[in-house]
Amino acid sequence: LALPDPFALLQIDIDYFKSFNDHYGYARGDDAIKRLSEILISCTLRHGGSGNFVGHIGGDDFVVVSSPEFAEALGEDIIAEFDRVVTTIYDAEDLARGYIEVKNRRHQPERFPPMSLTIALVRTDKMPVSHLAHLIDVAQELKAHGKGIPGSVVVGERRRPPDTEAERNVA
After folding, report:
1. Which of 36, 43, 117, 148 minimizes the number of CB atoms within 10 Å of its CB?
2. How many Cα atoms are found within 13 Å in the side-chain-facing hemisphere of 25?
3. DSSP percent split of the chain into helix, strand, coil, nearest 5
Protein backbone atom coordinates (compact mmCIF):
# COMPACT_ATOMS: atom_id res chain seq x y z
CA LEU A 1 0.00 0.00 0.00
CA ALA A 2 1.51 3.31 -1.07
CA LEU A 3 0.69 6.14 1.31
CA PRO A 4 0.20 9.64 -0.14
CA ASP A 5 2.81 12.09 1.03
CA PRO A 6 2.55 14.32 2.94
CA PHE A 7 -0.74 14.10 4.81
CA ALA A 8 -2.14 14.34 8.32
CA LEU A 9 -4.29 11.76 10.06
CA LEU A 10 -6.62 12.86 12.84
CA GLN A 11 -8.04 9.96 14.83
CA ILE A 12 -11.01 11.23 16.86
CA ASP A 13 -12.54 9.50 19.88
CA ILE A 14 -15.32 10.67 22.21
CA ASP A 15 -14.27 10.35 25.84
CA TYR A 16 -16.99 9.14 28.25
CA PHE A 17 -19.34 8.25 25.41
CA LYS A 18 -20.29 4.88 26.93
CA SER A 19 -21.34 6.48 30.21
CA PHE A 20 -23.38 9.11 28.30
CA ASN A 21 -25.04 6.36 26.24
CA ASP A 22 -25.76 4.27 29.36
CA HIS A 23 -27.21 7.26 31.23
CA TYR A 24 -29.30 8.87 28.48
CA GLY A 25 -30.03 5.91 26.17
CA TYR A 26 -29.16 4.89 22.64
CA ALA A 27 -31.21 7.57 20.87
CA ARG A 28 -29.33 10.40 22.57
CA GLY A 29 -26.05 8.53 22.08
CA ASP A 30 -26.81 8.27 18.37
CA ASP A 31 -27.59 11.99 18.35
CA ALA A 32 -24.19 12.75 19.93
CA ILE A 33 -22.44 10.71 17.23
CA LYS A 34 -24.49 12.41 14.51
CA ARG A 35 -23.65 15.85 15.92
CA LEU A 36 -19.93 15.01 15.93
CA SER A 37 -20.12 13.81 12.32
CA GLU A 38 -21.76 17.11 11.33
CA ILE A 39 -19.00 19.02 13.16
CA LEU A 40 -16.31 17.01 11.38
CA ILE A 41 -17.82 17.70 7.98
CA SER A 42 -18.32 21.44 8.56
CA CYS A 43 -14.84 21.90 10.07
CA THR A 44 -13.10 19.98 7.28
CA LEU A 45 -14.88 22.11 4.70
CA ARG A 46 -13.52 25.23 6.46
CA HIS A 47 -9.98 23.82 6.68
CA GLY A 48 -8.95 22.40 3.35
CA GLY A 49 -12.31 21.75 1.77
CA SER A 50 -12.98 18.82 -0.50
CA GLY A 51 -9.35 17.70 -0.32
CA ASN A 52 -10.07 16.21 3.11
CA PHE A 53 -11.56 12.82 3.92
CA VAL A 54 -13.92 12.15 6.84
CA GLY A 55 -14.59 8.57 7.88
CA HIS A 56 -16.59 6.85 10.61
CA ILE A 57 -14.60 3.89 11.93
CA GLY A 58 -17.52 2.79 14.08
CA GLY A 59 -19.14 3.65 17.38
CA ASP A 60 -17.63 6.88 18.68
CA ASP A 61 -14.43 6.65 16.58
CA PHE A 62 -13.79 8.79 13.51
CA VAL A 63 -10.89 9.60 11.23
CA VAL A 64 -10.04 12.66 9.14
CA VAL A 65 -7.28 12.80 6.52
CA SER A 66 -6.11 16.31 5.73
CA SER A 67 -3.19 18.31 4.40
CA PRO A 68 -0.61 18.86 7.14
CA GLU A 69 -0.87 22.66 6.89
CA PHE A 70 -4.55 22.56 7.91
CA ALA A 71 -4.40 19.75 10.48
CA GLU A 72 -3.69 21.55 13.75
CA ALA A 73 -6.20 24.34 13.15
CA LEU A 74 -8.71 21.72 12.00
CA GLY A 75 -8.26 19.71 15.20
CA GLU A 76 -8.63 22.79 17.39
CA ASP A 77 -11.75 23.89 15.47
CA ILE A 78 -13.31 20.43 15.89
CA ILE A 79 -12.71 20.60 19.65
CA ALA A 80 -14.11 24.13 19.97
CA GLU A 81 -17.28 23.15 18.09
CA PHE A 82 -17.74 19.87 19.99
CA ASP A 83 -17.16 21.47 23.40
CA ARG A 84 -19.81 24.08 22.52
CA VAL A 85 -22.33 21.50 21.25
CA VAL A 86 -21.79 19.04 24.11
CA THR A 87 -23.34 21.54 26.53
CA THR A 88 -26.60 21.33 24.56
CA ILE A 89 -26.99 17.54 24.72
CA TYR A 90 -26.76 17.05 28.49
CA ASP A 91 -29.60 17.80 30.89
CA ALA A 92 -29.10 21.16 32.61
CA GLU A 93 -28.92 19.65 36.11
CA ASP A 94 -26.17 17.22 35.03
CA LEU A 95 -24.14 20.05 33.49
CA ALA A 96 -24.59 22.19 36.61
CA ARG A 97 -23.43 19.28 38.79
CA GLY A 98 -20.51 18.61 36.42
CA TYR A 99 -21.05 14.86 36.08
CA ILE A 100 -23.48 12.04 35.43
CA GLU A 101 -23.70 8.98 37.62
CA VAL A 102 -23.72 5.53 35.99
CA LYS A 103 -23.46 2.10 37.60
CA ASN A 104 -20.28 0.24 36.69
CA ARG A 105 -19.94 -3.50 36.05
CA ARG A 106 -20.00 -4.16 39.79
CA HIS A 107 -23.27 -2.18 40.01
CA GLN A 108 -21.54 0.60 41.98
CA PRO A 109 -22.37 4.21 41.05
CA GLU A 110 -19.52 5.97 39.28
CA ARG A 111 -19.24 9.64 38.28
CA PHE A 112 -18.29 10.71 34.77
CA PRO A 113 -17.60 14.25 33.51
CA PRO A 114 -19.20 15.58 30.34
CA MET A 115 -17.99 14.06 27.09
CA SER A 116 -14.82 15.45 25.56
CA LEU A 117 -12.70 14.60 22.52
CA THR A 118 -9.28 13.06 22.19
CA ILE A 119 -7.76 13.73 18.78
CA ALA A 120 -4.54 11.94 17.86
CA LEU A 121 -2.74 13.89 15.13
CA VAL A 122 -0.07 12.24 12.99
CA ARG A 123 1.57 14.44 10.35
CA THR A 124 3.69 12.54 7.85
CA ASP A 125 5.72 15.67 7.09
CA LYS A 126 6.92 15.58 10.73
CA MET A 127 6.85 11.81 11.31
CA PRO A 128 7.33 9.92 8.05
CA VAL A 129 5.61 6.54 7.95
CA SER A 130 6.34 3.80 5.47
CA HIS A 131 3.48 1.48 6.33
CA LEU A 132 -0.17 1.83 7.28
CA ALA A 133 0.40 -0.30 10.41
CA HIS A 134 3.06 2.17 11.61
CA LEU A 135 0.67 5.07 11.08
CA ILE A 136 -2.05 3.32 13.12
CA ASP A 137 0.42 2.38 15.88
CA VAL A 138 1.56 5.99 16.26
CA ALA A 139 -2.06 7.24 16.29
CA GLN A 140 -3.09 4.65 18.91
CA GLU A 141 -0.14 5.60 21.14
CA LEU A 142 -1.04 9.29 20.89
CA LYS A 143 -4.70 8.58 21.58
CA ALA A 144 -3.82 6.57 24.69
CA HIS A 145 -1.68 9.46 25.94
CA GLY A 146 -4.41 12.01 25.18
CA LYS A 147 -7.07 10.05 27.08
CA GLY A 148 -5.01 10.62 30.24
CA ILE A 149 -5.37 14.40 29.85
CA PRO A 150 -8.59 15.93 31.23
CA GLY A 151 -10.88 17.69 28.76
CA SER A 152 -10.71 17.83 24.99
CA VAL A 153 -7.25 17.67 23.51
CA VAL A 154 -5.31 17.38 20.24
CA VAL A 155 -2.20 15.27 20.80
CA GLY A 156 0.49 15.31 18.11
CA GLU A 157 3.73 13.42 17.67
CA ARG A 158 6.63 15.22 19.36
CA ARG A 159 9.47 12.77 18.68
CA ARG A 160 11.76 13.45 15.77
CA PRO A 161 12.35 10.77 13.18
CA PRO A 162 15.90 9.35 12.95
CA ASP A 163 18.18 11.62 10.88
CA THR A 164 20.49 9.07 9.33
CA GLU A 165 20.28 5.57 7.93
CA ALA A 166 22.37 4.29 10.88
CA GLU A 167 19.95 5.86 13.40
CA ARG A 168 16.99 4.33 11.54
CA ASN A 169 18.55 0.89 11.80
CA VAL A 170 18.99 1.31 15.59
CA ALA A 171 15.44 2.54 16.20
Report:
1. 148
2. 3
3. 50, 25, 30
